[in-house]
Amino acid sequence: MEWWVQCGVRKLRICLFILILAGFLLGSPPAQALSEDQQLVVEAWSLVNQSYVDPTFEGIAWRRLRQKALEQPILSRESAYEAIDTMLAPIGDPFTRFLRPEQFKALTDSTAGAISGVGLQLGINEGETVVRVLSSLEGSPAATAEIRPGSVILAVEGNSVEDLGLEGVAAALRGPSGTVVDVLLEAPDGERQSLSLERRTVDLRPVRSRRLREDRHTYGLLQIRQFTTKVPELVSAALAELQNKCIEGLILDLRNNPGGLVSSGLKVGNALLDTQPLVSIRDRNGVVETVITDAGTLYDGPMVVLVNSGTASASEILAGALQDDERAEVMGRPTFGKGLIQTLIPLNDGSGLAVTVARYVTPAGHDIQSAGIVPNQVLAASTQEMPEEDSQDPWLGRAMVALQNQLHRHEKHIKRTAMT
């Protein structure tokens, strides 16, 4: 009897617990699904998680950052954008960044060859947070204002560069033709300048070529300002035209070329190297893939490459390959030093991500990110490294002398071969 009573009490307690639990579950609201704005944050986290070059994220609590972002109230699209910015900041990579719709569109449009803005090409040195001027596009408002390479952008429209970031600065400088943008910058000599620049459509004209004459020799000058989608095709046409003019040597001018599409730069390298290593790519898994060029070239004669501190990214890859494979002599100043390569990933609402996905190393194993490309022949720095007139460009003169020396060495080699 006593055993039955105890069992009955125990059963009663169990039944009461089940009833209370059922009432709690029935009375509690169902778990809410993520809002579209929250889903955007999760999508951005997932894409960076899958793509970033360092899967350890340099020791930061990357998964915890997603949770912290979702713990904040995300009640609008702008608050989602701010949460993504906050989530990416601890990575410490200025090239891995979130791009709002207008920024993403501006960046993708620039690879097509034309922009509406002031014509400044910008970058960030490793270990720095300041946004520097790589170059001013020829014929642009920035070139007219004589903004010098190496200048530091301090503010745009009164907004601090620390708040804007690299892409924020670029987006703020772009805008409809005819509108004016105020820029505060610090020149390389430390002088502060406050400028009002009128935006206009700037044709990048990424490829230019012409014939040069010096001491009875004929050379070709091929200038590549940025690697856009059309550059390989334009380079092929330019090389054909120059060779129809019977050039004896080629000057490949990559000064103030900030890069652009790496795939475009690799295609140009493929046109100048014959079954030789072009670059080695180290991905997030530590896999090293060496890209070898196809057989045959569009031009195989003597060549000199001109570079300076504004030569970056894809243009450094090309210069490094031509140097390491002993295909060309590199002259000028040490390059910018950007060997981290990004991919652009669109998000559902028109915004996007720029994510560092790989590190590039030259065929000889030089890490571009650490030191850039050091020229075979370092030239004296000039306050005007890209003068409009050939007669004012001492580097062109030095390049033609180098080509002449290559021709003389080639002639001597032919004579020695004939004698033997």
UniProtKB/TrEMBL annotation:
Source taxon at top rank: Bacteria
Annotated signal peptide: 1-33
Record Pfam families: PDZ_6 (PF17820), Peptidase_S41 (PF03572)
SUPFAM superfamilies the UniProt entry points to: ClpP/crotonase, PDZ domain-like
GO molecular function, one term: endopeptidase activity
Domain PDZ: 104-188
Keyword set includes rRNA-binding: no
Nuclease keyword on record: no
Coiled-coil region: none
Keyword terms of this UniProt record: Hydrolase, Protease, Serine protease, Signal
GO biological process assignments: proteolysis
Similarity annotation: Belongs to the peptidase S41A family.
Name of the protein in question: PDZ domain-containing protein
Organism for this UniProt entry: Candidatus Synechococcus spongiarum LMB bulk15M
